[in-house]
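[worker-b] picked up task from shared queue
[worker-b] task type: protein-ligand structure
[worker-b] ligand name resolved to zinc ion; SMILES cross-checked against name lookup, match
[worker-b] sequence length check passed
[worker-b] input payload:
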Amino acid sequence: MKITIRRTVKWILWGLATVSVAFGLYLSLFFFPYPLFPHHAEFAGFSVWSDREIPDDFELVLDDARRRVDNMELFVGGSNLRIFVCHSRRLFVVLNRLAGKRFAGQALVISAAGNAFFSVPGIEAVRLRNGNRIPHSRLEGSWPAAIAHEVAHGLVVAELGGRLARRVPTWKSEGYADYTASLLPAVSDPDYDFRSRVGWVLDDTLWRGSVGPVDRRHFRWHLLVEYLCSVEGLSFHQLLADTVTEQTAWAGMIAWYSSGESPG
Ligand SMILES: [Zn+2]
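[worker-b] inference finished, payload out:
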């Protein structure tokens, strides 16, 4: 009897040790992924790790991302996301699956670790699929915009704390990240016209795509936040008010679009 109990305890301890080691390995994938990304560089205040040689022009990408971030309303200096560049599609898909995501897009952020994984094939696929359909938006497939977008989410968490940030509706959090990530190049572009962009979201012919309809939800969220912040003049905190709903924002934007007033 004594021997059986001792053996059972031994098996339980072995089981616990195995589970702990597996869990430790799992966490280290997201918190200390450095062995998988042996190439390292520091550019424009960003720390970058890559699974393959870092391209020479990446410094320009990060200079651009830096300017976008420095221009953000919520930016107060301080720490950045660590950037992990996945050239390998498989590695990025595995990381997403292990993080519980069914679909691998352009980026995966582990906020608790301050680590952001970006997919070279993912960003390239968006760029090829959409080309110049909608410049200065997430549909562009732009590295500086993708990086600035994830930094913007991080700034929202830093501003509100994780619990409140999670309660922000998706249209506001995604719309705000896209809006603030592309704000600087948008205002610096003489051809940028917000009114035409509202027209684009309403134009079904623009969203047919060669392989089925293109999802315009994110662009719509981007426009709603841009309308509220740039035309109505709302600050980030005013945008978060419960009275500001997707329906009221859409109604306001369409009324403004139809009235033909110039941005205030
Ligand atoms: Zn996002």
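[worker-b] attaching auto-annotations
[worker-b] The mean pLDDT is 91.
[worker-b] releasing lock
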